[in-house]
Amino acid sequence: MQMKNGKCNTQNGAVINWVNRMAGLCCAEKIFWCDGSEAEKELLTNLAVAEGILIKLNQEKLPGCYYHRSHPSDVARVEQCTYICTDTEEEAGPTNNWALPKQMYSKLHALCAGAMAGKTMYVVPYLMGPLDSPLTKVGIELTDSLYVVLSMRIMTRMGQVAYEHLGESEDFNHGLHCMLDLSPDKRFIAHFPKDNTIISTGSNYGGNVLLGKKCFALRIGSYLGRNEGWLAEHMLILGVESPTGEKTFVAAAFPSACGKTNFAMMIPPPHFTGWKIWTIGDDIAWMKPGPDGQLYAINPESGYFGVAPGTSCQTNLNAMKTISRDTIYTNVALTPDLDVWWEGKDETPPPELIDWKGNPWTPESKEKAAHPNSRFAAPMTNNPMLAPEVNDPAGVPISAIIFGGRRSTTIPLVYSAFNWIHGVYVGASMSSETTAAAVGAVGQVRRDPMAMLPFCGYNMGDYFKHWLNLRKLVTIPPRIFHVNWFRKDDDGKFLWPGFGENMRVLKWIIERCRGRAGANETPLGWVPGPQDFDLEGMDEFDSERLAAAQRMSMDDWKREVLSQDELFIKLYSHLPKELIFQRELLVARL
Ligand code: OXD
Ligand code: MN
What we know:
Phosphoenolpyruvate Carboxykinase, domain 3
């Protein structure tokens, strides 16, 4: 399509009116209507380089790749500044920050007033979901950040397609993003679920400002899903192909920076000849009961916004291939020849680097070269194992849902819930050690139900109810599992090697779903016995180590159940009785 140089490219009256109103409020000097074309990408990329927003990386090593540094105070999601604005505090629930819509609108409109004087407002229309899927939704983000425009172009199906999908409809997400001066006291990520509106101010870090992702696809999405009978989840989606060509699709919820991208792109170890893992998505799943009673999932995104540190050819070769071109890197370190580097990329760091703050760095430096939450944004079409079903408007049928946290003690490598209600309890009582993906202390155990604690756009108790209610429509429910790749032994070493070896756990899960693998009953759920778990070809991991990784200490579990109380009591007035009964049953079994 020919680019019209940023001129208005829609006839949708509701869009035009709203854009004009917001441009008026922000006193934008110019409005640039994005169309998603290649010519536009080139124009805006060059502009971003000229303005110092992006640095062009070594094009021989990294064709089409660029680098961005965010403000050092603006490097992660800010949960303490994230608000759900509903008429009552109860609707948002005790796990969210709450504000009255009227009050938040007036506060943020005051902050945004005049914020784009002398600047351009970019109008970014985007689709969350494949073209022509009944689950797909339209969002429009207005932003003064070129970094956001170019990243949204990777992370979503951005441009004219969104207006085509929208037609005359007024049903789109209204997103307004003003960077302001990036000072933390003006940083707000506010959601107005009833108005399908998001306002984000004072930040230019991905999770706070790429509004299609956490804000729309999860917080607003979960609210819409409850009203419309579907689920918006913090889950990867992958397809497992067996040597006979049989494909099984799985969705898995792990908290931020706990290996969703690695799991979604896993390469099975050599022993698993003929097995393949296909990626549908690495972060978000929208799932809806289908007419046949199965749960169908789409990935609403079209790119990966992954954590760079720890990513290497050993840990995630498919990711390394994916990010070798057309990628925007943020807050990693730079080599003198404008290549990128981060801790864990290879064993020996280069002798000199420029760190994420722009300072010279050597291996003797005390600080990390790349920020622990430094990121890549790469198009999913670069992924050599991108599932051909990724654009299927119907989505893929989900056979297993896996919940998992980062826990160094107590939680076994894998177990399976007894049934859907028990599975919802397993997900609801999930916990994990905090990571650098959000501002705050790292390594503290917190309850993170279904990995949705920072992303549920309404009362978490009602969210559990919604999960339980969906069972009526999902007559062929996925089996539910729990995994923990991060358990440590007494010497503080990880018990389980993880990464590609996770295929062994996944194989048991798939075979369980298909009724082909055995299991033993325990107080927690079904677990594989040594004869059910494929250990062949593992060097150091034997059945003894498996037993250690699977160990259930009744004393630890009694403590674990007690520590679930804090969240359950917090949510008590909305907590479904089923979950209280499940907890009692677990206590009785222990
Ligand atoms: C992410 C996150 O960026 O969960 O995906 O923080
Ligand atoms: Mn995430």
